[in-house]
Design brief:
Oligomer: single chain
Number of helices: 12
Largest sheet: 4 strands, parallel
Structural class: alpha/beta
CATH topology of the largest domain: Rossmann fold
Low-confidence stretches: 1-8
Number of domains: 2
Strand order of the largest sheet: 5-4-6-7
Number of strands: 7
Helix content: 40-55%
């Protein structure tokens, strides 16, 4: 009973998948929920939550983004959300860096799911499965250059198998070709960039390319013929 009241006092942890994961790659959302059930008690708001506002901000519609932020914040407060764990790097960047600018009273802790998983690995709550071949990791722009999250996903990838680094990595990582609205507005250029990133993985003899972003995953998977592209959640045992 005391544990129950302590949880109420501390507030809820929310899993926020992000629009792309929720509506396009739903299997990744299911993967992450299975992972989170092993490491933390969490809630979902499903259709109550709205877009974080990242696309609106990127397109220059700050007032629209602010309205989305206000709506989300109201819903989060109504459900006693004290911490958000998101599997979308763009949502992570928006909640952690943009919401404090858009909202006067923003006070919710934000973590990307690779950070939560890294902590859980250290505590022995979860571990990646073994993957054959040489593995490499692609840094998503919002997670790396914006979020400075480089080591946490690599910790898990190294445990999964034989890890090799691409030449352009971390803050110098090559884009997947999908961000900033490029995929929507200049598809051919986007596809060429995605193919170039796959070529860079081939140059280090990687058999598997892993990334922790749903958009990077979709772009690189479409561009790859011989290298297996995996999203971060797929390197864990989910049963």
């Amino acid at each position: 009973m005391m544990k129950f009241f302590e949880k109420l006092k501390g507030g809820n942890v929310l899993y926020y998948p992000g629009c792309l994961t929720k509506f396009v790659v739903k299997e990744l959302e299911e993967n992450y929920k299975k992972i989170l059930r092993k490491i933390v008690d969490f809630i979902e708001l499903k259709d109550l939550e709205v877009c974080c506002g990242s696309p609106a901000l990127n397109a220059g519609y700050k007032e629209d983004a602010k309205k989305l932020a206000e709506k989300n914040f109201k819903i989060f407060k109504e459900h006693s959300v004290k911490k958000i764990i998101t599997s979308c790097p763009a949502c992570f960047k928006t909640f952690s860096q943009e919401y404090p600018k858009l909202l006067e009273n923003w006070d919710i802790e934000v973590k990307h799911i690779t950070q939560a998983i890294s902590e859980a690995i250290k505590k022995g709550k979860i571990k990646p499965k073994k993957i054959e071949g040489k593995l490499t990791y692609h840094d998503p722009c919002h997670l790396g250059r914006y979020g400075n999250i480089y080591e946490e996903p690599r910790e898990a990838v190294r445990l999964a198998g034989d890890f090799v680094e691409m030449e352009f990595n971390r803050e110098n990582a090559f884009c997947c070709g999908g961000g900033g609205g490029l995929r929507s507005n200049f598809q051919k250029l986007s596809e060429e960039i995605s193919k170039e990133r796959i070529k860079q993985a081939e140059e280090v003899k990687a058999n598997v390319l892993i990334t922790a972003c749903p958009l990077c995953y979709l772009c690189l998977k479409e561009a790859s013929k011989d290298i297996k592209v995996m999203e971060f959640s797929q390197i864990f045992e989910l049963g």
